[in-house]
Design brief:
2 domains; alpha+beta; 10 helices; Alpha-Beta Plaits; 8% strand; single chain; 69% helix
């Protein structure tokens, strides 16, 4: 009987406040979509750094079998030449840490940015073999300004084909991605605040519309939770609908937009479905928090239970 009453009051509340409910759903939808996009962009930055390196890294590329750079006239770098570079990195005061990249890892890294819409290797990747790739060391600088000093230590070593200063290469990309991330999250924060205010107005109007029956329920000794529950469920339903729409927006981005980027913008590896699932889980959690916490606070204020 009590559950039937709660369900009845939930349906009546949604019908009484159709316009406010729609406004809450739309605001939560847009705000959580921006949250999801911000999280995807953050995941994109992390994916890019894992694949391309951080802005504190130098990439020291060894000569491969078919390298055309002037420093590689002697052919593919030998293990002894690679060990000589490792000794310099291990003793240099300018290096915080370093890691070796094999030909297999380099090949997989290359495939990450050379696939078609279906995720298969493109024409260029199909022609390459693992043996065509170069080995390399990724050296993380102890200080961003140490790049020139470290380059001077390894530039003329035998077997070194090229040195890439990733700060120069990647700074514009990472600055753009970080700006987009904070723009999306900043807009989301403003819209989340708007959603909280709308939830407050919805509760206030609902309480005024039901003030007589609420008074009767208090007189007959109804518990606080029993009175609050229809209001909480009303906002939870609205929030979950908004979250579902926001998750649908994230899915739309992953189905249509990311494959297009993967096919046409091959400079970067792009986010995957694991990142999207994490973002959608966060969206649902925020939606529930937006529904439950403000509603409980507002019902205590307006219902005086």
């Amino acid at each position: 009987m009590q559950l039937r009453y709660v369900a009845t009051e939930l349906g009546n509340g949604l019908r009484r406040n159709v316009s406010m409910t729609i406004a809450v759903i739309l605001t939560i939808w847009i705000s959580l979509t921006l949250v999801g996009l911000g999280l995807l962009i953050r995941a994109q930055v992390e994916t890019s750094e894992r694949t391309l390196g951080s802005r504190l890294e130098l990439k020291i590329v060894f000569c491969a079998e078919n390298s055309q750079t002037p420093a590689c006239v002697g052919g593919q770098a030998t293990q002894q030449q690679e060990k000589a570079v490792e000794r310099v990195l291990s003793t240099s005061e300018y290096v915080d840490s370093y890691r070796y990249e094999s030909r297999d890892v380099a090949y997989q890294r290359f495939l990450a940015t050379h696939t078609d819409r279906a995720g298969n290797p493109d024409a260029i990747a199909s022609e390459l073999r693992v043996s065509d790739m170069s080995t390399a060391y990724w050296a993380t600088l102890a200080d961003p300004d140490d790049n020139v000093a470290l380059v001077s230590q390894v530039r003329n070593l035998a077997g070194v084909g090229q040195i890439f200063d990733l700060r120069k290469e990647l700074d514009p990309i990472y600055r753009m991605l970080n700006a987009l991330k904070w723009l999306a999250l900043g807009g989301a924060a403003l819209l989340v605040l708007a959603a909280v205010l709308q939830v407050s107005n919805t509760i206030r109007l609902a309480a005024m519309a039901r003030r007589r029956e609420i008074g009767i329920m208090r007189l007959v000794g109804a518990s606080s939770l029993y009175i609050q529950l229809p209001f909480v469920l009303e906002v939870v339903v609205s929030a979950l609908v908004g979250a579902a729409l926001a998750c649908g927006s994230v899915v739309t981005v992953m189905v249509f937009f990311v494959p297009w980027l993967r096919e046409h913008v091959r400079v970067l590896p792009w986010v995957n479905w694991g990142d999207a699932v994490d973002a959608m889980g966060f969206i649902v959690a925020i939606a529930l928090a937006l529904a439950v916490i403000p509603t409980l606070l507002m019902t205590r204020k307006y219902l005086k239970v």
